[in-house]
């Protein structure tokens, strides 16, 4: 095991995010007192889940492997119900634990299953994607998708700890790794501009899991999120800034029936949100354009279909940040100066969308 970085997440139920390589051996201390551990995983992660099961067995904890559909297909109430049935059949008690081994979709599901079983049991995300490490696994927001939209059913349920084993990124498809960088870039714009400087200095190193630059980017993004969620677990104020770029991004995902990668949709959403702030007189043109420049250095998408606008606008009206019939967007008043824009008129929204329309 190489040097482990421990990033504390403060709050009423504090925990640590562990970043490093060969971290599976750090799992047993997080599971003290558990007799059983459900290990939720998608089919491609069966080998990693098997390694986790071996570690649990050696520690005297009986593993229960539960395979779930990959990606967003696993975040449904039907899949959650199958998991609950499996926990019931295994007589899971309040001292037992749920693990999610996979990307953000699997850890979102695992956290929701844990939050709802017996009104809340311990859980640990073992994140296998960059997106999961810097976003979904940190912060205690768990959830599933329904027909009305993404993540509309869920619970706030902080984990016992988070494992970000960088070894798992070595075999991650490059497109998936780059998609995760969209969330890293988001953290650069809302809180830590050094992230943007690192990407601009060497975009190839930023996307290479064996280079120190990627580890630094991941740790910086995790620290941003840890600070925000430690201050505001239940999204009553500050935490909303983490949704920068997500209002349009989630609408694109819904329209694409979740076939688009989350990071790709967020990248387009970031360009849209920057354009909206610029048109509203809140953000300077250089910072507006920097969004597109940084994302394109990483070969992330910055455009979407022109004809989709009416459908996207309708989907955004169901966004979690909306209040009654009023749309609310996270925007920037400057670099690392996030704020809320309430009730922009339809004409301004449409003009902002023209900046991403193709």
Shape verdict: globular
**Fraction in helix:** 40-55%
Side-by-side strand order of the widest sheet: 1-2-9-6-5-3-4
- What is the name of the CATH architecture of the largest domain? Up-down Bundle
Query: Which CATH top level class of the largest domain fits?
Result: Mainly Alpha
Task: Supply the key terms.
alpha/beta; Rossmann fold; Dehydroquinate synthase-like, alpha domain; 2 domains
How is this structure best described in words?
It contains 14 helices and eleven strands. The chain has 358 residues and is of the alpha/beta class. It has two domains: 165 residues, 3-Layer(aba) Sandwich (Rossmann fold), CATH 3.40.50.1970; 181 residues, Dehydroquinate synthase-like, alpha domain (Up-down Bundle). The strands form three sheets. A seven-stranded mixed β-sheet has the order 1-2-9-6-5-3-4, sandwiched between helices. A hairpin with a 5-residue loop joins strand 1 and strand 2.
């Amino acid at each position: 095991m190489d040097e482990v970085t421990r990033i504390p997440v403060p709050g009423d139920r504090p925990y640590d995010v562990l970043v490093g390589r060969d971290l599976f051996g750090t799992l047993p201390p997080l599971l003290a007192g558990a007799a059983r551990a459900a290990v939720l995983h998608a089919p491609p992660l069966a080998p990693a889940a098997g390694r986790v099961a071996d570690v649990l067995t050696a520690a005297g904890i009986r593993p229960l492997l539960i395979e779930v559909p990959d990606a967003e297909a696993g975040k449904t109430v039907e899949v959650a119900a199958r998991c609950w049935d499996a926990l019931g059949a295994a007589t899971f008690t309040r001292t037992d634990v749920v693990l999610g081994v996979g990307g953000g979709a699997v850890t979102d599901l695992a956290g929701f299953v844990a939050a709802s079983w017996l009104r809340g049991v311990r859980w640990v995300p073992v994140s296998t994607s960059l997106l999961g490490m810097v976003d979904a696994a940190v912060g205690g927001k768990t959830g599933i998708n329904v027909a009305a939209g993404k993540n509309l059913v869920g619970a706030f349920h902080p984990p016992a700890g988070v494992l970000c084993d960088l070894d798992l990124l070595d075999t991650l498809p490059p497109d998936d790794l780059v998609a995760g960088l969209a969330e890293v870039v988001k953290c650069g714009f809302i809180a830590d501009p050094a992230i943007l400087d690192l990407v601009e200095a060497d975009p190839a190193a930023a996307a290479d899991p064996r280079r120190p630059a990627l580890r630094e980017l991941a740790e910086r993004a995790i620290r941003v999120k840890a600070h925000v969620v430690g201050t505001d677990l239940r999204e009553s104020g500050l935490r909303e800034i983490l949704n920068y770029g997500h209002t349009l991004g989630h609408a694109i995902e819904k329209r694409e029936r979740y076939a688009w990668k989350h990071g790709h949709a967020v990248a387009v959403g970031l360009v849209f949100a920057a354009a909206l702030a610029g048109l509203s007189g809140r953000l300077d043109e250089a910072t507006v354009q920097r969004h597109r420049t940084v994302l394109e250095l990483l070969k992330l998408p910055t455009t979407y279909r022109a004809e989709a606008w009416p459908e996207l606008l309708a989907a955004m009206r169901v966004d979690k940040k909306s209040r009654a019939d009023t749309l609310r967007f996270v925007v920037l008043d400057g670099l690392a100066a996030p704020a809320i824009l309430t009730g922009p008129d339809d004409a301004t929204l449409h003009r902002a969308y023209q900046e991403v329309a193709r």
